[in-house]
Design goal:
The protein has 242 residues and is of the alpha/beta class. The protein has a single domain (4-232), classed as HUPs (Rossmann fold), CATH 3.40.50. It has 13 helices and 4 strands. A 4-stranded parallel beta sheet has the order 3-2-1-4, with helices on both faces.
């Protein structure tokens, strides 16, 4: 098990150094009410007083209820400034402007994360803040994030932590119990949870990444997700004269 006090010190120093070298005035992040954003919130709040968490409900009823309340609880716990930006109408207006009905779940569900990241970068540019990413190692390996959406950021202080390590770190930092204990969910549509959508648990993913045995079924799912999402891990392919 990691020394969480040492991990806290190292990550806080990383954020402070990044702010100093970049000349940025603070940090802005998407406060989703989930575990990853809660951990990023805590670490950033230890590094600087200038932290803004933006709660961005978009279409899903859960965004207006459980997620919003958990986001506010995290902000209160760590003394973080909060802004609420409702993106539901923006999403509706975009779908209307496109004019062609979007039928695939991927096309529809990826809109909200990209609108949220656009919002964060707009606010960050105005304030001179860096945008903090909130994706963990398990999600990144699986490609379980939206390209140019929640996968975009200026820095990420938790990208090396597996999902189960995030849970342990949050418990060490005294995060609100409901945030720590609720099922991980991107909140993209009603009833969605990460593990049910992927068909594999975070415990199995982390075991696989740590070289521990997992079932053949879990291994196949993890390898399939990783292989199909490799394009998310690199910069765009560009033409080069040969």
């Amino acid at each position: 098990m990691r020394n969480w006090e040492k991990e806290k010190e190292k990550r806080v120093a990383f954020i402070r150094d990044l702010l100093a070298t970049s000349g940025a005035k603070g940090v802005v992040f998407g406060n989703s009410g989930g575990k990853d954003s809660a951990l990023v919130a805590a670490l950033c709040s230890f590094a600087t007083d200038n932290v803004l968490g933006v709660i961005m409900p978009c279409h899903s009823k859960r965004n207006y209820g459980e997620d919003r309340e958990d986001g506010l609880a995290v902000a209160e716990k760590y003394g973080i400034e909060t802004m609420i930006v409702d993106l539901t109408k923006v999403r509706s207006d975009l779908l209307e402007a496109i004019q062609t009905p979007l039928q695939s779940k991927g096309a529809l569900s990826n809109i909200a994360p990209r609108l949220r990241m656009t919002t964060l970068y707009a606010i960050g540019a105005e304030r001179g803040y860096l945008v903090a990413g909130t994706g963990n190692r398990s999600e990144r390996y699986m490609g379980y994030f939206t390209k140019w959406g929640d996968g975009a950021c200026d820095f990420n202080p938790i990208a090396d932590l597996g999902a189960t390590e995030v849970f342990d770190f949050l418990r060490y930092l005294g995060a609100p119990d409901h945030v720590v204990n609720k099922a991980p969910s991107a909140g993209l549509f009603e009833g969605q949870t990460d593990e049910s959508e992927m068909g594999v648990t975070y415990a199995e993913i982390d075991a696989f990444l740590n070289g521990e045995p997992v079932s053949d079924e879990a291994k196949a799912i993890i390898e399939r997700y990783h292989k199909s999402s490799l394009h998310k891990m690199v910069m765009p392919t560009v033409y080069e004269e040969k």
